[in-house]
Design a protein that fits this description.
- The complex is a heterodimer.
- Chain A contains nine helices and one strand, in the order ααβααααααα.
- Chain A is mostly helical.
- Chain B has two domains: 43 residues; 228 residues, Cytochrome Bc1 Complex, Chain D, domain 2, CATH 1.10.760.
- A three-stranded mixed beta sheet of chain B has the order 6-5-8. Chain B has a two-stranded antiparallel ribbon with strand order 1-2.
- Classes of the chains: A mainly alpha, B mainly alpha.
- The interface between A and B is large, with 49 and 45 residues.
């Protein structure tokens, strides 16, 4: 039963005032539009290569972020972050740092997961698309903050390495509706690749900290 | 006047290309890229070739019904080309559907010329081995609206509905990277690597971006339509393939075109 009907019944019963606010009506319309848009998308895409039409379906995080246009209220923000914290898996061997030289390759590479990509080729993290990391690479984007001197500034403590690993594994666990992909959770990068990128940020010898 | 404008745009592009660091792109590639610009600019905007071919295709009698497209109503009435692109997408009563330029052209190729929908949509985008008649027609029609102000209406309920659904699609996050259009085009002055990303939610930047499409892409040696632009951004977004002239493509175009209202069309332009 929708609010309009409830309202009519309420009016019929001569209950003073109708409990339905303009906000509720707008929210109902938004929800209906979301459903209609998803329905429209399902008839408008086709599976190609590794990019199947299943990718149009949203998990709870994606659906909430779309609904709030990436700017959810505090309670929803906390809900998204808590949910994603439960989805974060740290390495069983307890080691968080790999090889920063391999990490630099992961940070440079933007291949992976597009229908035009070979699914056999390991995906990259494309960190430079959004972040400054080293002084040597001047072709970097600005969607994310500069990570230059990340370890040097924050210190090389194990908690910082753990934060870096967790952030790269699942950015939504720390800031809801981030523009940053959930590299571990969404299986874009392997555990070893993430360790290598953490080393790029946290190894004192890495050019990030020079 | 137009060619001097093109040349100054070209120089800015060459300067930008020269400034590209060698770190991510080998200097050989950069030099090749600059040479391609020089070659392209020496003859003006190669989009003119597509525009000329499109004009021929528009006027030729073709298809099983041996008709030209000259009676096609692309928004301002049968046969009116100048200014029509500026009012699209639009609701067309004869099809009971909101249509963008490409969708309307397919409609006319089917209804006036007697092609099957499959034939009309056969080569939506050109490539090294095949030319796209569709992209040529798009170049001709849009070229005829250069200098015209964008004026997309939303009087019809279907137009309003498409705008709202287009907005939803713009914010729809999905796929392994959780991307939506908004992640790359929802804030000012963002860049991916060194490429500027226009904020498509704000009028001045949305206008500048929308009114410069279609465009001749120097890096591809092809004229690219707006349908192609959406198709390729969805690829970068790690989504499945956007079907040519699908409802979602038209709804999203409605959202973007309306956000660009008031902007002056300069397409087909020339781009990287």
């Amino acid at each position: 039963m929708n609010h309009k009907t409830i309202c009519l019944i309420a009016a019929a019963l001569m209950v003073a005032g109708c409990a339905v606010t303009a906000e509720q009506v707008a929210a109902e319309k938004e929800a209906a539009n979301s459903q209609a848009a998803l329905g429209m998308m399902k008839t408008s895409f086709k599976t190609r290569g590794q990019a199947s039409v299943d990718r149009l379906n949203q998990d709870e995080t994606q659906a909430l972020c779309s609904q709030y246009r990436d700017n959810p209220p505090k309670n929803i923000r906390e809900k998204i972050e808590a949910l994603n914290q439960t989805l974060t898996v740290f390495p069983a061997d307890g080691k968080l740092l790999g090889d920063w030289k391999e990490g630099e390759k992961v940070a440079q590479s933007g291949v992976g997961k597009q229908f035009s990509d070979n699914p056999e080729t390991p995906a990259g993290g494309n960190c430079y698309a959004c972040h400054q990391l080293t002084k040597a690479e001047v072709s970097y984007g600005n969607i994310g903050p500069s990570l230059y001197n990340f370890g040097k500034v924050r210190g090389y403590a194990p908690e910082i390495a753990k934060y870096a690993y967790g952030k790269i594994y699942n950015a939504e666990a720390y800031s809801a509706c981030s523009n940053m992909p959930r590299f571990g959770h969404s299986k874009i990068l392997t555990e070893q690749q993430i360790k290598n990128v953490v080393a790029l940020l946290m190894d004192p010898e890495s050019p990030v900290n020079k | 006047m137009r060619s001097s404008f093109l040349i100054s745009v070209g120089f800015a592009v060459i300067l930008a290309a020269t400034a590209l660091p060698a770190a991510s792109q080998s200097s050989d590639d950069t030099i090749k890229e600059i040479e391609r610009y020089r070659a392209a600019l020496a003859d003006g905007n190669p989009a003119e070739l597509w525009e000329a071919r499109g004009e021929d295709l528009w006027k030729q009698t073709r298809g099983p019904k041996m008709a030209s497209l000259e009676k096609c109503d692309i928004g301002l009435g049968a046969g009116i080309v100048k200014g029509a692109y500026a009012v699209l997408p639009k609701y067309f009563a004869d099809a009971d559907r909101v249509m963008d330029l490409e969708t309307r052209l397919v409609h006319c190729m089917v209804n006036l010329q007697g092609f099957t929908p499959e034939q009309a949509k056969k080569d939506p985008f050109g490539g090294p081995s095949k030319k796209s008649d569709m992209e040529a027609l798009v170049a001709y029609i849009t070229g005829a609206s250069r200098g015209v102000q964008m004026n997309v209406a939303s009087n019809h309920p279907k137009e309003q509905e498409y705008y709202e659904l287009g907005k939803k699609i713009f914010f729809h996050r999905g796929g392994p990277h959780d991307f939506s259009c908004a992640n790359c085009h929802g804030a000012d002055s963002q860049r991916i690597r060194l490429q500027d990303l226009p904020n498509l939610l704000k009028q001045p930047t949305a206008q500048r971006a929308y009114t410069s499409w279609p465009a001749y892409r120097v890096s591809q040696g092809e004229l690219r339509s707006f349908q192609w632009r959406l198709f390729d951004c969805f690829r970068q977004q790690r989504f499945p393939e956007l079907v040519f002239t699908s409802d979602a493509s038209v709804a999203l175009t409605m959202f973007l075109a309306k956000n660009a209202n008031g902007g002056v069309l300069s397409a087909p332009s020339i781009k990287r």
